[in-house]
Amino acid sequence: NFPEKVSIRDVTLRDGLQNESVFIEAENKLGGLNEIIDAGFRRIEVTSFVHPKWVPALSDADELAKRLPKIPGIQYDALVPNIKGLERFLKTNIDTAVFFLSASTKHNEANLNRTTNESLVHVSDLISKTRSHNRKTMGAVATAFVCPYAGEVPYQEVERIVTTMVENGVDEVGLGDTIGKATPKMIYEYCSRIKDKYPDLTLSLHLHDTYGYALANIIAGIQSGVYIYDTAQAGLGGCPYAPGAPGNVQASQVVNFLERQGIETGIDIDKLKNTDQMFQDMVKKQTSV
Ligand code: HMG
Ligand code: MG
């Protein structure tokens, strides 16, 4: 069962850069953003309203948000870790607030300084507050399959989190393979079960490609009915609080892989060679294949 179209959400400017030691000026990030838009991406996660101490690479979030080009049809997303982050988000015109927590409580403690259950209460409140301002919300579940500290995460944990988000009226949910250790079998099983339980839920996958499983995992995701995938230019990315989590699946690889199978992405593959190079130049290293 192959769909005609799949949507791709670019996370280069957020996940792609959050773990980089080189600080990239807003001006250069905006230059990169223009190329991403020019290549055909319509959904772009641009930054995170996180404390600069936690993620210095994104310390210019407020400035960047003010300078985003307003283009009809482009949807901007930003990560929002807490209430302070939400106050900053609400002062911008960014479309979607992405709230995140980890299905594995060990990773949640490393990443958010609290247990998964504490975060779930917090995220539920943030979703309600954001909805009352008529802004879009997305729930991102990190370590939805495998945790760097606790190993495989039971499906029931993921379902419990998704259920709470859905009950609080979240607009969409993304499941994250934070360290790239999920197998196609796991992706198929977890996503099929979520889709069976919530057929109308907009569900996406955020796949890190540490061990080269991500393309296989996309096929498993497609088979389970997931049609939105996160990618990054030059395969950049990683969570600073997840050891061994380099690299989101590379945009040019995914586009090529899907288009060769007749699945439309709306993205101009020829332009992605330039964006791959441009971002590698920005971070001053070679990451792309
Ligand atoms: P904490 O230290 O417990 O924070 O961290 P706090 O609430 O105690 O606040 C400490 C100080 O920071 C206070 O200032 C706050 O006002 C300030 P003071 O009163 O001492 O002067 N502060 C802020 N300032 C600006 N913006 C803010 C903010 N928040 C607090 N937003 C906290 C708790 C949640 C803040 C921290 O743990 C945190 O931000 N963690 C986020 C870590 C992160 O961003 N990780 C990477 C993203 S997740 C990811 O990459 C996975 C994903 O890609 C999916 C996948 O791969 O699977 C999404
Ligand atoms: Mg990530």
Automatic annotation (TrEMBL):
Please list the GO terms describing molecular function.
acyltransferase activity, acyl groups converted into alkyl on transfer; hydroxymethylglutaryl-CoA lyase activity; metal ion binding
PROSITE patterns named in the record: AIPM_HOMOCIT_SYNTH_1, PYR_CT
Species of origin = Oceanobacillus profundus
Instruction: Write the record's keywords in alphabetical order, separated by commas.
Output: Lyase, Metal-binding, Transferase
Q: Which family does it belong to?
A: Belongs to the HMG-CoA lyase family.
Query: What range(s) does the Pyruvate carboxyltransferase domain occupy?
Result: 6-273
PANTHER family assigned to the protein according to its UniProt record, in alphabetical order: HYDROXYMETHYLGLUTARYL-COA LYASE
Q: Which domain of life is it from?
A: Bacteria
Quote the protein name from its UniProt record.
Hydroxymethylglutaryl-CoA lyase
Q: Which Gene3D superfamilies match?
A: Aldolase class I (3.20.20.70)
Question: Has the keyword Transferase been applied to this entry?
Answer: yes
State the CDD domains in the record: DRE_TIM_HMGL
Keyword Lyase among UniProt keywords? yes
Ranges annotated as spanning the membrane:
none
Q: Which InterPro entries does this chain map to?
A: AIPM/Hcit_synth_CS, Aldolase_TIM, HMGL, PYR_CT
Q: What is an annotated GO biological process for this record, any one?
A: ketone body biosynthetic process
